[in-house]
Amino acid sequence: MQARKQPTMGSDAGGLAGRHPVIKDEAWPVARLIPISSGSGVEAQEGRLASALLAVMAAVPDFGHALLKPLGAPSGRIQTFTEVPFKLGGKAIRPDGVIVVTRAGKDWKALVEAKVAANQLDVDQMNAYLDLARELDFQAVLSISNQYVTSSTDYPIEIDRRRLRRVILHHWSWIDLLTEATVQKEYRGVGDPDQAYILGELIRYLSDSRSGAVAFEGMGSGWTTVRDGARDQTLRKTDEAVIATVARWDDLVRYLALSLTTELGRQVKHVLPAAERTSAGRRQALVDSLVSAGRLYADLQIPNVAGVLSISADLRSRQVIASTSVDAPREGTAKGRVSWLLRQLQAAPSNLTVEARVTWKPTSLASPLSVVQENPSVLYPEKGREIRSFTLTLVSNMGTKRDSGRGSFAESVMNISRTFYGEVLEKLRGWKAPPPKLKRPAEEDESRQEAVAELVRVEPEHIAEIDETAVAVETHGQVQKDAERPAPDNG
């Protein structure tokens, strides 16, 4: 692309708004895949990682468009720049990057701010970038850090919402980007081998802890207090450690969803009930549950599986629990419905608990899988009731350490989630009614037997015995009636 004549760097942004669709010239530093920096420390680390990411977004368009399309960017040519200096209100301001996507002579533009390691986004800095984007007529401001955006939060920090009237504000965690890069390379594919290699190098870079892109680090400094307080039932809703712990729990859930997305190649989502879809609503629900019952919980939705993956941690009993619920078949007897489930659980852990929920009954029937396999009748309801659904539950000991290493709480949650999905949920298939069949003359008697079997709640093969008994009774009754009938008068 031939450089257009544009204002030089350092020009006052206020005087440029509305006069130039793109504010760049050949002096803007292009993002480099292998940046050269004489600096050291965290700021230099941020610059190197941001430059490598932006360079790969431009060099591998499939990856770049996958990231930018949800933000409204067109599918055009991507150009990326680093540490471009501007002025806002007479003050110098230098975002970590600029992204420009060009299509049909029009440009979509975004400012980028990156943080690594434990560095947090700064409210004043992000507000300044929003003001700068509005002045320059940029469409978006993107932030990247090791902070997470959960299903109930729009942004990791509180931002003045009035600044968002004309600018999109979006956040990626570094793990979000690592997940997207892995899914693009391993599952969606990259047609050009050189581009695939470049994307693979970014994955390798982000996967190394020395890059500054950090995975989930643990439950925070207040974890031990909350863990022990839950068991002793001494927690209060206003405790700072309680509030911090529920926030870290949702961060762990987000990290778990991203890890499963990477392994499965399909997007795994944290789903919430309507009352918890705001930050305040979700936080309050978790705080109430943690204080009153010592319990943290979450539901993950995985594409094309029979049920939701429910994860919970009982801090009082020191257990982590994975479960799912599936609807029972709507046809057949209790024996047939239990058999349908057992056929799908042949390789499941023997300590899996199988629970049958019955119509018109508040309690359920439950037993370990090993018991149900030996004696399926333990799940058969009393006469006149039907199995409505099954709930499968796997329980494991909870890790107690606050970090994310061996023996930690986070590790125990990740392990039971993977085990339950791989050995139970992955193999389950929801029941589907078979298509109706045309009747053939030879099958009419069989169809009648199946219908009668459904009504009297017996297996179809026993209908013949009932029919024979009914015929015998009917014949005997007819003979008796004939014997009792007076002889005809032939005179």
Task: Report what the structure shows.
It is a single chain. This protein has helices at 41-59, 61-68, 123-136, 174-188, 193-207, 223-232, 240-264, 279-293, 334-342, 369-374, 409-423, 444-456, 463-484, and strands spanning 77-82, 86-88, 91-93, 97-103, 106-114, 140-145, 168-173, 269-271, 295-301, 309-314, 319-327, 353-358, 364-368, 387-397. The protein folds into three domains: 13-211, no CATH class; 223-427, no CATH class; 444-476. The protein is of the alpha+beta class and 491 residues long. The longest helix has 25 residues, at 240-264. The protein has a seven-stranded antiparallel β-sheet with strand order 8-9-10-11-14-12-13. Strands 1-4-5-6-7 form a five-stranded mixed β-sheet, sandwiched between helices. The chain has a two-stranded antiparallel sheet with strand order 2-3. The radius of gyration is 32 Å and the shape is globular. The chain is built from 13 helices and 14 strands. Strand 5, helix 3 (123-136) and strand 6 (140-145) form a beta-alpha-beta unit.
Largest sheet strand order: 8-9-10-11-14-12-13
In angstroms, what is the radius of gyration?
32 Å
Residue windows where pLDDT falls under 50 for at least 5 positions? 1-25
Helix count from the secondary structure assignment: 13
Q: How is the topology of this model organized?
A:
Layout: H1 41-59, H2 61-68, E1 77-82, E2 86-88, E3 91-93, E4 97-103, E5 106-114, H3 123-136, E6 140-145, E7 168-173, H4 174-188, H5 193-207, H6 223-232, H7 240-264, E8 269-271, H8 279-293, E9 295-301, E10 309-314, E11 319-327, H9 334-342, E12 353-358, E13 364-368, H10 369-374, E14 387-397, H11 409-423, H12 444-456, H13 463-484
Parallel strand pairs: 5-6, 6-7
Antiparallel strand pairs: 1-4, 2-3, 4-5, 8-9, 9-10, 10-11, 11-14, 12-13, 12-14
Helix pairs in contact: 1-2, 1-5, 2-4, 4-5, 4-7, 7-8
